[in-house]
Known about the structure:
This protein is of the alpha/beta class. It is about 35% helix and about 20% strand.
Amino acid sequence: MIRLLSALALSTTVALCGCNKKDETAEVGQEAPAIAALNDDSQPVDLADYRGKVVLVNFWRAECGPCLREMPEHDKVYQRLKKDGFEILAVNVGQSQKVIHDAQRRIGVSFPLLSDELEITSRRYRVIAVPTSVIVDREGIVRDWKPGPMTEDELEEKVEALL
């Protein structure tokens, strides 16, 4: 029943996120595609709600060692820069809410861990491997797309240049 409700919520999210743009993909210098992911309350997350902030959209999986190692480093940057308008949306690729909750308990980061169980957002953001990091500027434009881990220093430098 929970999976059915999650699927229905995600279907609603997809409808609200403009699926008429199904060919839309993340490209540096272009507007960031809509996110079709759910927060821990199974509510849709809208990237447009973050307009005016610099956003790291970070794609991860619970069994990915590099993903789990970089997340606490990203959280340090988040804690330092959130007052200046920096946000992180950590989008889990294809795993259940239970797996995401278990990972949250283990790593204990303060930014939201989102569910992309149907991998719609992952496809829009051209995720072929995790971790993948995408930085979106205050106007909603993709400024950086990086497959592979991103260090604390690297993230801080890229974000500070956009704040």
